[in-house]
Write a structure and sequence with these properties.
This protein is α/β, with parallel strands linked by helices. The protein has a single domain, classed as 3-Layer(aba) Sandwich (Rossmann fold), CATH 3.40.50.300. The protein contains eight helices and seven strands; from the N terminus they run E-H-E-H-H-H-E-H-E-H-E-E-H-E-H. The strands form two sheets. It has a five-stranded parallel β-sheet with strand order 2-3-1-4-7, sandwiched between helices. Helix 3 packs across helix 4. The mean pLDDT is about 90. Bound molecules: zinc ion. Zinc ion binds next to loops.
Amino acid sequence: MVIIMLGAPGTGKGTVSGMLSNKLNIPQVSTGDIFRKHIKEQTELGKLAESYISKGKLVPDDVTVELVKNRLQDEDVQDGIILDGFPRTIKQAEALDEMLKNMDRKVSMTVNLTTPEDELVERVVNRRICPKCKAVYNLVLNPPEKENICNNCGHELVTRKDDNEETFKGRLNTYFEETKPLVNYYDKQNKLFSAVVSKSINKMGKDVTKDVLDYIKKNHID
Ligand SMILES: [Zn+2]
């Protein structure tokens, strides 16, 4: 089973893929994890990726594709994988189809999480992090016990630099521009499952995960 996760920052994509990974017993793999591993081990591809990342540039498609191709050979993902952060472009999606075909595998489904934009903005501007132990809070959904103080270590909480409305809206726009063609790409192949994650309809990560699992069962996806 090959599942692709799509969802703007703040939709709870990480939470849902973590839950799916547990329930389906297949690893959740993000491009960030793959980059970090190769950079740590200083492989040829890792060094190449690092040369872009250290300059604040995006790792080019061909390097990312090679790294993912590499990861797909690993023993632990032969029964299934949940891909988070890949593909990002049509070119990457086509490369993924090609490499899976060569392995006699295919994309099983794409999970596209959506949340109303104002709710995403509200979630992100209310996010606070502990710079010491990295705990994450939300002033509305998950506030600390003492105002602005970390429950775990007592350190003062801070706002992440790019968690302000303006920067976040920019990130969202980039995401939508980038993802729209991908959503169409998988929709045309009947491989798109879209789910709304929103407090206004009382659908949060756990419920959405259940919907995805029901869909998998109903449609005999493997
Ligand atoms: Zn802390």
